[in-house]
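Microcin C ABC transporter permease YejB (Bradyrhizobium australiense), 368 aa
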Amino acid sequence: MTGYIARRILLMFPTLLGILFVSFVVVQFAPGGPVERVLAQLSGADTGGTSRISGGGSDLGPRGQVGASADAVSSKYRGAQGLDPDFIKKLEAQFGFDKPAPERFALMVWNFSRFDFGKSYFRDVSVIQLIKEKLPVSMSLGIWMTLLTYLISIPLGIRKAVADGSKFDTWTSAMIIIGFAIPGFLFAILLIILLAGGSFLNIFPLRGLTSDGWAQFPWYWKIIDYFWHITLPLVSMALGAFATMTLLTKNSFLDEIRKQYVMTARAKGCSERQVLYGHIFRNAMLIVIAGFPSAFIHAFFSGSLLIETIFSLDGLGLLGFESVLNRDYPVVFGTLFIFSLVGLVINLISDLTYMWIDPRIDFEAREV
């Protein structure tokens, strides 16, 4: 066990390094950048992500040297014509782009190893502070989505396993597959049109998690107002997760129902309820329970980006989206590093959960 955990932890370092390296290389060839963003703001043409003129390369790797001519410096950036080249060089130095790409990557890795993610380019606040501010919104969505998914999918999956092949199983499977096929963001837009004043009913609010003046509401009205705001985002996010968890539960129970010990329990005179909840339930739920950490982290990090953007929820998903548009690279790389690290740790916790729930599972014996 100790050796397996040690190997998994050691593998995290090259994995994180590889993720950062690939992302850094991709950004080198991405159009636009923070320098162009500032120049666009100065010229009054800021679009949140302007494009570099052909042949210029990326803002993260300016090629002009200190002794370059004014024309050479200006030609690297759209909107730089007519500006003092010394001013542009100061901008490059301010964003750290006066250093070669390998040096900047090495410095980023060194800082990230000490959990120093720097400050946002355009918000004048540290990346850690930004994440702390946005974390409650995303965590709220992730927790409620995971709980809602488990509370509905597990009973439904058990019912489908017991009634396998029946009309109930057939039509619920059809509904689940249809729901899984609909993208969450598309379903969110549909809900807005139907229920949030788009074209039909105006039942639910369109943005935010609370109403104006929420702090002055009585405690019970705060709860009602919160769930009133979170209903549409939550339903939109959970739509696809229902299918995966329901079918996972059904197939897990079906595998156990067909095993010899179930036939033995029935032969001893146990009722179907006793067989189902006294014998099958514990074994069938192993894979479902052990998958809880990864299911939560998936809902927490990967499922909220578009939903937070559509419903204007100020969480980590919207922060990441805006940071990419604004070329706010410290926030982009900082959140990427944290999300990747958390994902790797959660995967390890999931494996250890399997071993804790079912001691027969031994990852130590596997080839790593």
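The domain at 127-365 is CATH 1.10.3720.10 (MetI-like fold). Residues 47-75 have pLDDT under 50 and may be disordered. ok done for today
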